[in-house]
Amino acid sequence: MIDTPATTLSAARHFGAGKLSASASNRGDRSMPTKSAISSSAEWLRLREIIKEKSFRKDRVYTLSSGEQSGYYFDMKPTTFNSEGLSLTCEIMYDLVSGRRGVYVGGLAVGAVPIVSGLVLYSATRVPIMGFCVREEIKNHGTQQLIEGFIEDGANIIIIDDVTTKGSSAMRAVEAVRQRKCKVIKVITIVDRLEGAFEMFNREGLEFVSIFTTKDFV
User: Fold this and answer.
1) Coil, helix or strand for 217?
2) Which pTM value belongs to this model?
């Protein structure tokens, strides 16, 4: 059965130390940041430093995937393709997914690819998890699949993203796995820009978790 807003309430969890935006602060207790050892851990603090150094840009006006313009930008590839950055990301993120037995993790290419691949490798000596990625479009050769990797019809799924703005990229992955009758347990992102992703996932009845938010960097 696919979750709908009528049957499942979404809760946003942000592990960052920054204050909530005005809109976020009005969402009620269920959407308040969860007090967690993650946000005070050495790993979280070091990962924030790496993101600031390698991925956080504020040198000009950027056009976002949503089409809107912003004075800052998170280019997460230099972090997720960096050995230390990816290692720390996977260590933190694994704790957020490992409580679910038999779950599959995946997301939209290309942002989710290094994270999912790293999580699968990280889990090899722990409780193994299986991964997949969703293509932007079906390739016109080979197996001609939209979803690559390991996924089963009707499986429990956690969607991964590197950065969320309005949540549309992650929702494309959600919609793709729902075509396979899968149940999306939650959506996890490294950085949430606090610009509508929560509202998007809330409408879909999905739990939303971010390791950081914009407030941790600006």
Assistant:
1) coil
2) 0.82
